[in-house]
Design goal:
By secondary structure, this protein is mainly α. The protein has six helices and no strands.
């Protein structure tokens, strides 16, 4: 065998191995991104569901027309006790771990507004149509819309995100 033939074979082998390694690296990165996106999607959905369900349970407890102590305890119990084991405060911590900073920062006002609603409903006997309740409920839902959009944008493929911005 000639030296030139060996050199060409060696270069071909190096090129082949290099191409295989790059292909495997790209595939591995794609799989890792897919797994990470799925993890975020699950946490995002759980957090959003927990926030909405907690709000619903609290308002249900508040608007039953019960005595102050019963109402106060019912609202606080509704906040802290979740039949689906998806405590909102714990899910906020989980969100802090898996989400980018801008998503977590968008989630904090939602949680803070939920706390404000809890305190208002626990301390005051209100009707669902009252101006006081509407004053804290509207920012909550506005912040929820912002958070949902931020989460949805975060879950979009990078190529889609770049073309929007």
């Amino acid at each position: 065998m000639e030296l030139g033939t060996l050199a060409v074979a060696a270069v071909g082998a190096v090129f082949g191995v290099g191409t295989t390694l790059v292909t495997d690296l790209v595939r591995s990165r794609r799989e890792q991104d897919r797994y990470w996106n799925e993890t975020k999607r699950v946490v995002y959905a759980r957090f959003l569901a927990s926030v909405v369900q907690t709000h619903s349970r609290m308002s249900g407890a508040a608007f039953r027309g019960q005595q102050d102590d019963v109402r106060r305890n019912g609202v606080h119990d509704a906040f802290h006790t979740d039949p689906h084991d998806s405590n909102t405060r714990a899910l906020l911590r989980e969100l802090a771990i898996v989400s980018p900073d801008h998503v977590y920062e968008a989630a904090q006002p939602v949680f803070q507004q939920l706390l404000i609603i809890r305190e208002l409903l626990a301390e005051h006997s209100l009707s669902p149509e009252s101006a006081e309740y509407d004053e804290v409920r509207q920012p909550f839902f506005r912040d929820m819309e912002t958070l949902q959009k931020t989460m949805r944008d975060d879950l979009q493929p990078k190529t889609v995100r770049r073309s929007r911005g």
